[in-house]
Structures are given as C-alpha cells and as structure tokens.
Automatic annotation (TrEMBL):
Taxonomy of the source species: Bacteria, Pseudomonadati, Pseudomonadota, Gammaproteobacteria, Thiotrichales
Coiled-coil ranges (or none): none
Record organism: Thiomicrospira cyclica (strain DSM 14477 / JCM 11371 / ALM1) (Thioalkalimicrobium cyclicum)
UniProt GO molecular function: dTDP-4-dehydrorhamnose 3,5-epimerase activity
Biochemical pathway: Carbohydrate biosynthesis; dTDP-L-rhamnose biosynthesis
UniProt-listed GO biological process terms: dTDP-rhamnose biosynthetic process; polysaccharide biosynthetic process
Stated name of the protein: dTDP-4-dehydrorhamnose 3,5-epimerase
C-alpha cells in the first residue's frame, strides 16, 4: 500500500512506499508511474537517470533548466541523508518564490517528485550520500540555470554542520532571487 504526502507547493509529492521485510532483508517498490499519474492527473515520463555521490557538507544547487527544457525530477536517497530544498519558480503558482525543505534518508525508502518549474538543491548531512534521480527532459547545458543557495531573501534554514559547506565554483556565483525574477524567460 502506498502512503503519499503533498505540500503547500502544488505538485510536489513524497511517495512513502511499503517495505516488505523478511529474514533476507527488505523489498520496496520505490516508484510506479501510475501512482504519480493518479495524483498529478497527467502522464509522467522519465528519460534520463542520474547517480550522484557526495560527501558531508557538499551542497549542490539551487538548479533548474530554463524552458522549454524545464525538468521534473524524481529523487531517491539510497545512501546517507540529505537536506533537500525546493523553490517555486512558476510565476503562475500561488506559492511563487516559496521554499520547501525536507530531510531525506536512505533509512526510510522514499521517492520525492519535484515538478518542472522549481529550483532544487541539497546539502549532504551524512559522511557520504548517494542520490539517484530521474528527469523528464534531457540535460541541456545551455538551459542550465541556478539561484544562490544562500540568498537571504529565500530564508532557507540550511542546517549547521561542523565542517564548511563544499559548494562548486558555479554555485558560488549563482544569481540572487531579485536578479533572477527580472528575467522573464527563466520561468514557466
Ligand atoms: C546535471 C548534469 C550534469 N552533467 C555534468 C556536467 C558537469 O560536468 C558535471 C557536474 O554537473 P553539475 O555541477 O551541474 O552537477 P550537480 O551540481 O550535481 O547538478 C545537479 O544538482 C541538483 C541539485 C539537481 O537538482 C540536478 O538537476 C542537477 O542540476 O556533470 C551531466 O553530464 N548531465 C547532467 O544531467
């Protein structure tokens, strides 16, 4: 049986699938297309699968692809724990500019669906983390875009760690929210 959670930001869905435990270990159906299609009332089709490994303090994001290559994402943490962040960039949305954060851990098999039009990022809280994610549009380097993870306007309460955050040179120079919203082409 599937248990799912929705949030203030429309179309973000956290799937909490059932674990089947026995003497050998556990078996979990982490995703069924029909589950999401029933909630979203539209077809989903993931064409690219990614595997990302990181160590504690690595902060990736906040990222999105500009239209017409905006990507919906399906996130699973298969090792370790992350603090996952989403920002609604859809001008038509009642939660435009709103952020949402969740702790995701491999200890609890969960699958997070992030609709197209949201910026996404995460901080690794465990010694190592492995994130598997699927996207419904191919990676388009020319459409790759970002938003400063530490923009005070976003008020994201990133957890404090005993080590420094490890942020890529690209992500240290992402634009602020105010700079981003001046550019109409960035949004759905
Ligand atoms: C995202 C991506 C990157 N790459 C390459 C480009 C680069 O050489 C290397 C690392 O890219 P990045 O620094 O952008 O990787 P990363 O910072 O992990 O980017 C990811 O961050 C998280 C938060 C997301 O939500 C993803 O959509 C994606 O943007 O991998 C691909 O080949 N395919 C892809 O789909």
């Amino acid at each position: 049986m599937l248990n799912l959670k929705t949030f203030d930001i429309a179309d973000v869905v956290l799937l909490n699938p059932q674990s089947h435990c026995d003497a050998r270990g556990q078996f979990v159906e982490t995703f069924r297309q029909a589950w999401l299609e029933q909630v979203l009332q539209k077809p989903v089709n993931f064409c690219q699968h990614n595997l990302v490994q990181s160590t504690r303090g690595v902060l990736r994001g906040l990222h999105f692809q500009r239209p017409p290559y905006a990507q919906a994402k399906l996130i699973q943490v298969i090792e370790g724990e992350i603090f996952d962040v989403m920002v609604d960039l859809r001008r038509s949305s009642s939660t435009f500019g709103k952020t949402l954060n969740l702790h995701l851990s491999a200890k609890t098999p969960q699958t997070l669906y992030i609709p197209a039009g949201l910026a996404h990022g995460y901080l690794v809280l465990s010694e190592q983390a492995t994130v598997l994610y699927q996207v419904d549009q191919y990676y388009q380097p020319d459409a790759d875009a970002g938003l400063a993870y530490n923009d005070p306007d976003l008020k994201i309460a990133w957890p404090k760690l005993s080590c420094k955050y490890h942020v890529s040179p690209k992500d240290q120079q992402q634009p602020s929210w105010k700079a981003l919203i001046r550019d109409d082409k960035l949004f759905l």
